Fold this sequence. Notes:
Layout: H1 3-42, H2 52-80, H3 87-99, H4 107-118, H5 123-148, H6 154-178, H7 181-208, H8 217-230, H9 240-248, H10 256-283, H11 286-289
Helix pairs in contact: 1-10, 2-3, 2-7, 2-10, 3-4, 3-10, 4-5, 5-6, 5-7, 5-8, 6-7, 7-8, 7-10, 8-9, 9-10
Amino acid sequence: MNEGRLQSVLSGIGAARRRWRLPLLLATAGLVLAGCVYSAMALDLALGDLAPAPLLALALLLVPVSLGYAALNMKLTAVAVGAAIPLAKCLRIACFAQLAEVAPAPGGAIVRGAALIERGVAPSRAAAIVTANAILWIACAVFAAGLTARGAPPWAVMGALGLGAAGMAVSTLWIARIGSIRIASLSVVLRVVGLPVAALRMIIAFAAISVPIPAAEGFVFAFASIAGSAASIAPAGLGVSEGLAALLATMTAAAPAAAFLAVALNRIVGLIVAALASAVYALIPPGEARDG
């Protein structure tokens, strides 16, 4: 297929995705809302039963830490392709990228890639480094889930470990080829640091609905959240993360209804904080928002 034909096909796919984006968003949001209501009823949980302390910890501490982590990752991504982006600007990009997941998919990747392209990075190279980092993030999450899913059958554990290790190897080599071995090594280190944060967010989200889970199982549900958010079939992976979490719950001590609700709560709080941060950034005059 020649380049012109490929571009035509991609344009057609993009137009179709934009056309169906809003209906799909409304449909999946409705399904998730129905799932949350059903899960809350199954757990006999009312809105007033939500524990305020874990909710505040999630909104005021863990989500901001996650956005800071995303900013560091954006900074390293920029360095890998020779783009100069100040860390403060990377935080701005991270906030808009998370919020953009509800826009035409893959919203977050588009925001990150566009930030690189604006600074002179070739589109193909920007797409490659963003994709390689996404694969590394998912692969690390798969591997961690395999290590911690104690109730999973042996074949599932071995499959997760094998798939995760293979994905980590391929994506790390890809990042090294784009940037350097040092950049690739730092990318892996960042994922090792980021996964416990993602797992802690899930543990706290479960605590908010008064369903404590073992610390190790936080990694299992972190994988569900990460994998679902990477799915472009629905805005922000809406419904995918929750459904996957409910499925994985059968391999843990948590009830599927609790897993569905906790992942949804974690997502909602994350989007609210990102929206508020993005609104603040949007109010900053253009002259003050430029790179220094």
